[in-house]
Amino acid sequence: MKPSFFDRLSGNTVAGSDLDSFDEELPIASAHKDFKTRASRPAPLDDDAPASEGQLPVDVHQTGSDIIIRAFVAGVRPDELNISISRDMVEIAGSRSEREQVSGPDYFTRELFWGSFSRKIMLPQEIDVEASSASAKDGLVTIILPKLDKAKQTKLRVKVG
Question: Could you give the CA distance from residue 12 to residue 14 in angstroms, rounded to a whole number?
Fold first, then answer.
């Protein structure tokens, strides 16, 4: 008797039972060994690989009146950072360059990103572009975007003549 799918999924199979081809894959022990072998090798450094643009990690949160974006831009001077703002989107772009050149074989680990980067952030609400501000301190850029108050109303007087 063939065990049900639920029995096979939960591990409630009878020893010595015939299993279908779904279960006849690579044994777990050899898959684990293969994973350990691949994981213990260092990643190859490919200096000939084409330079691609990196994506800037950001934190975006809101307060009652503002949307706040924070991003680490260590190694980038504030005047080399381009921030474009529209009512519903922010784009942050820049470039980070290495200060000293080290050849590939001399590296043990290489995890830092060098080169141009950018990030487009769709905003959850329209913002006041003119009242927005940005500041940088200790490699952290903070962008404050005041929310537009759509409920705010003003009354206009009609002029005669």
Answer: 7
Model pLDDT for residues 11-68, shown as the tens digit of each residue? 665 555 555 445 455 455 544 444 444 433 444 444 444 456 777 889 999 999 999 9
Smallest Cα–Cα separation from 90: which of 112, 111, 116, 68? Answer: 68
Task: Tell me if the pTM is above 0.70.
Answer: no
Q: Where along the chain do its domains lie?
A: 5-40, 54-99+113-146
Q: Name the phi and psi angles at 105, rounded to 5.
A: -65, -20
Residue with tokens 């007087």: 157
Q: How far apart are CA 89 and CA 101, in angstroms?
A: 36
Task: Retrieve residue 67's tokens.
Answer: 């949307």
Q: Residue 88: what are its φ and ψ, rounded to 5°? A: -125, 5
CATH number of 54-99+113-146: 2.60.40.790
